[in-house]
Hints:
The chain has 365 residues and is α+β, with helices and mostly antiparallel strands. Helices cover 39% and strands 13% of the residues. The chain is built from 14 helices and six strands. The longest helix has 22 residues, at 8-29. The chain starts with 7 loop residues before the first helix and ends in a 5-residue tail after the last strand.
Amino acid sequence: MTRRHLCGAALATIAGLALAATSVTAQQKAKNVRDGVFTADQALRGRSGYDGVCARCHGVPLTGSEGNGPTLKGPAFLAHWDKDTLGSLYTKIRDTMPAGSPGTLTDEVKLQILAYVLQQNGFPAGASDLPGDVNALEEIAIQQRGVWDGIFTIAQADLGKQQAARCQGCHGPDLAGTDRAPTLKGNAFLANWEDGSVNRLFTKIRDTMPPGNTDSIAPDTKLDIVAFLLRENGFPTGATELSANVEALDSLQIVKQGADSGAPNFALVQVVGCLTPGAAGSWTLTNATEPAVTRDNVPNAAALKSAEAKTLGKQTFGLVSVDRTAKSGQLNGQKVEARGLLYRDGAYADLNLTSLRTLAPTCSN
């Protein structure tokens, strides 16, 4: 495939309203599992429930057991739920667990278990318990750690600095590059590695550096060098070292501060846009929204109703695997919800369809 703002009492009233608005804003910002959305006590209570029931299938360390239950901890688990909400995860636990007998545990115990699972995945505890209201949980996003969350330590970067002295012969004493090798810091470096994973950078260094003598530096040492390069390029240090775990490194995208790395290639996504016929029997989704990661190949009624309210965007996607209904022209010019596997190549993006559903007979917001 080929190719996004007045006297005494009134002033006091205004001040009170401003404080209230500030409070609401603060609450609205706490919408991420990394903001401390459960208490340590809630997670402790959840451990008891987990060990008593869930561990039989998912294992005491939450790493899963073959043929029984998947891992509930680590990169694979987080990748599955990344960009989803605690509402979705809680509903999954509440309605289906334990497998075959979901009524075995109360909803309260299941909420505690959810807190324990979050704790075990390294998310911090806070001052308030997880709420039992699913709508409130839907406001809390699940997001993996990124390069702006402190993914390496000061000590690791310092070790990398020592070893990076060996790189100066080609990349220059300040790593600004020479006629022999490119810069390892600054805009040019970031432009080359941005939107790729930390694993992509590590693999490049591990497998090809130094040229002609790649085995002269151990892989663990090269990981320290990656930590140093990240620090040199402005990324913050944290409490844990970079790990050589491939899945963990792959989940860490190199992005600008405050940027959303977006849906990765080959992710199953949902997009809303206008179905438009193209040249030579091709089909395109125009005025489309940004792709949102989903876990369902086909939308349910609630998802379609939500999609109807979405405002059209500015993205364009080439469509692959278009079904007969679309090919007949019956959906041309309609507002549709599309799902499929995403593939980006520069400014171009393809969507290998798993579902295409009409939202409105005309394509307008």
